[in-house]
Write a structure and sequence with these properties.
Blueprint: E1 28-32, H1 43-56, E2 60-66, H2 77-87, E3 90-94, H3 113-128, H4 135-143, E4 154-159, H5 163-175, E5 179-183, H6 199-211, E6 214-217, H7 220-230, E7 236-238, H8 245-250, E8 259-264, H9 275-286, H10 288-292, E9 295-300, H11 304-313, E10 320-322, H12 328-337, E11 340-344, H13 353-356, H14 361-368, E12 373-376, H15 382-387, E13 393-396, H16 401-412, H17 427-450
Parallel strand pairs: 1-2, 1-4, 2-3, 4-5, 5-6, 6-7, 8-9, 8-11, 9-10, 11-12, 12-13
Organism: Candidatus Nitrospira nitrificans
Protein name: Glycosyltransferase subfamily 4-like N-terminal domain-containing protein
Pfam family, one: Glyco_transf_4
Length: about 450
Amino acid sequence: MNSTEMGNPANIADNLPGDPVPPRGRPKLLFLAYPFPPAKAPGCVRTWNIAMYLTRLGWDVTVVTPDPSILRNIEDNGAASREFDDVGIKRILTGHGWRCLAPNNLKCWNKNLGWFVGKIFRTGARKLGIDPHVGWIKAAEQACSALTAKDVDVILATGSPFAAFSLAKRLSDLLGRPYVLDYRDPWTGNPHAGHHLPRCATQKEAGVLKGCAAVTIVSPSWGCALDRRFGVGPKLHVVTNGFDPTEMEAVKPYDFGHCAFVYTGIFYPPKRSISPFLAALKLLRKSSQGNAKEWYFHYYGPDERYIREEAGRFGLTDRIVFHGRVPRREALSAVKGANLAVVITSVNEEETLEDKGIVTGKIFEAIGLVTPVLLIAPEGSDASAIAKPTGLVTSFSGTQLQDMVLFLKDIVCGQAPQPKNIEICSWSTISKKLDTLLRACMSFTRTTTNA
């Protein structure tokens, strides 16, 4: 299956037995979203926008998510709760067992002897292919124990963590309602996993895919890779990430006072490496335009040590400004005030489908903020193809240094790309596809259940 053959949500019911029945009243969505505000996690951007926009499109959305009180890193919980009330999103807050398997995200005994014991369990879980968040399944199932079939029309689970997929299947069996799986990342085929998962994990993934009503995934290449491995067929649909126009319009640009190149986030060397961009900056510095203009590379994120080492290697230490970890609103302000946002998916030339399918959420935020983007990605990458119609994204492979330098010269001289059709990357547009898909799945279930 290629990207053009993936399922169309408008006719998903044609691929399923039974006659679709139009829903009555507001349909009810049970959304299993482990990352959800006020948690500080990249996945929260997608889950929040899904919940908010589906609510606006007429859904009653109930989000099942861990209680913020057990999370280590959260934003303003009170402000988030007020926003949920304003939008009309309900939550079922859950506990979490086996927190020692994910001590970076969950509050647990993680000092001295606690750390040592936890490490033993984490090592064993990794070797056995056990999801670090497996302890959420039973806790979430208990939190949902009062739900009946009347409370739910369709279940949507987003991963990672992929414990949410197993939970979706269990709740589907209990409630007699269909479940849809949303892949924010690949599961057993993740290009950034760093280790191979055992066969039992692949079998578990195959099992939940077989029973689901539909699958959404963020890029065509990841969809093709998933279909090759599991034969998902017409159940598979691409629902990319995007930006919220209202959020982006409210962002105030930071005034750098000079030409600023901005990168926000983390790196995964050697695939997602800063080296090609710094090599281009070194050449820019040697050019007449680059030497005459004041410019700096600003880094927002936790990998300061790595960037410092690379900057020293390229002789650019005096051209790098470090900001560390900052709240999301500060990072967005920096991107909006920047002359150029830098996004890197992979610096390698030849990549697998899983690598070509990497489309980071940062690229959509920059588009929504109308900031030009220098994208380093493999030739033919999904990130380049998806973002090209917006007019703001210029893509290079990791070896196209001279082309990068020419582009950077244009930026420092004030000749930036202009926006075109950025609306195609907004959640206002993207959410309508997901809405159509979920309604089709719900209609099918009501028909077959009543038959």
